[in-house]
Specification:
This protein is mainly alpha-helical and 71 residues long. It is built from 4 helices and no strands. The longest helix is centred in the N-terminal third of the chain and has 15 residues.
């Protein structure tokens, strides 16, 4: 898992979360992660590939998914 000091873009943290989850559960998919964030599969794919940013409405859900605290 990435350390918070090693990331320069929050999307790297999301991508690392996805990769770790996929290694632990091979059936984990973009669709499953997207559902937890309130996104469609194609939106999540674009976010993880850094061609799109996470919508502001999804930030609280992403915080919960990643287990982050604070602002």
């Amino acid at each position: 898992m990435l350390n918070i000091d090693e990331i320069s873009d929050y999307r790297d943290l999301l991508k690392d979360f996805y990769v770790q989850k996929k290694l632990a559960f091979p059936l984990y998919s973009y669709k499953m992660m997207g559902q937890k964030l309130g996104l469609e599969t194609s939106q999540l794919f674009r976010i993880l590939n850094k061609t799109m940013h996470l919508p502001t409405r999804c930030i609280p859900l992403a915080k919960n998914l990643l287990g982050l605290k604070g602002r």
